[in-house]
Amino acid sequence: MPITAECLNDLLPQTQCRECGYEGCLPYAEALSGGEADINLCAPGGETVIKDIASILGKVPVPPAKIIEKALAWIDESVCIGCTACIRACPVDAIFGAHKLMHTVIRSECTGCGLCVAPCPIDCIHMQPIQAEFLPLTYSISDENKKNHPRFAAATHAKQRYEWHNYRNIRDVKEKKEELAKRENATKNKLSATQKAISSQPTESSTPFNPMDLISKAMAKAQSQQTNLVTAANRENFRNKQIEEAKQRAIHRRAQRDAKYGNEEEKEAALVYLRQYKAEQEAIKIKRKHT
């Protein structure tokens, strides 16, 4: 009788850690049943799982390719930016939080897979070792699972959480697609109603619309405005005043430069100009003050 993938999957700890190189416990079990994977790849299961798999498949037990110590994820809440990357990565929904709000790990539901560590952009998630024989810890409070061995009770609980996680993701995607389709249909109906309303309105003239007529009218109006444009009487005086002020600013900057970096003759001339400029500015201030 062939060994099914479901039978092998029941022996795995259901952490979904992907340390075996597969996308989860069930894909690894399917590879085992097809003879496509080694029996010693389950890191969290260790020697116990290897012996059970070897016994069912009729193979000789071998040392684990890798061993992972039991650990729970911990989020430094003072650093967390609320990006939700870890929430999306957790296969059993053991992280609680919302966008741009603090996240925290539900310790009793964490399987210690470590999949939430890498996606964190600010490295605020750490795996803390824990003295526990099996994970998650929640199995110990389940009346249904108390009848089973703690190892299988923990695995069963983790599997149920993982299956619910997958179901919820599929449901959310489906609901999102339905909502988008609903909005698209509403927009199409609105546009259709608007077009019907426009087409049902009577036209003021039977003459077809000619874009060139509109362009000609706009050009005639612009030409009329240009012709009637009145030039201010003091425009030339204002322009000359601006030019003169610009010249005075340039002379002042040059005098400041010569006073600092020029030779003796240039410094002396610059100081004379700057004293005169200062006196003129003070006189202007006094005049404005009394007017």
Commentary on this structure:
The structure is a single chain. The chain is mostly helical and 291 residues long. The chain contains 8 helices and 4 strands; from the N terminus they run H-H-H-E-H-E-E-E-H-H-H-H. It has helices spanning 5-9, 25-33, 46-57, 85-89, 150-200, 211-227, 235-261, 264-290; strands at 71-75, 95-96, 104-105, 125-129. Strands 1-4 form a two-stranded antiparallel sheet. A two-stranded antiparallel sheet has the order 2-3. Helix 7 packs across helix 8.
Note the main attributes of this structure.
291 residues; mainly alpha; two-stranded antiparallel sheet; two-stranded antiparallel ribbon; 4 strands
Mean pLDDT across all amino acids: 86
Give the N-to-C terminal Cα separation. 113 Å
Largest sheet: 2 strands, antiparallel
The value of Rg in angstroms is: 41 Å
Helix-residue proportion: 40-55%
- Total helical segments: 8
Class inferred from helices and paired strands: mainly alpha
What strand order characterises the main sheet?
A: 1-4
Topology as a string of helices (H) and strands (E): HHHEHEEEHHHH
- Tally of extended strands? 4
Outline, from the CA principal axes? elongated
**Poorly predicted segments:** none
Strand content: under 5%
List the helices and strands and how they pair.
Blueprint lengths: L4 H5 L15 H9 L12 H12 L13 E5 L9 H5 L5 E2 L7 E2 L19 E5 L20 H51 L10 H17 L7 H27 L2 H27 L1
Antiparallel strand pairs: 1-4, 2-3
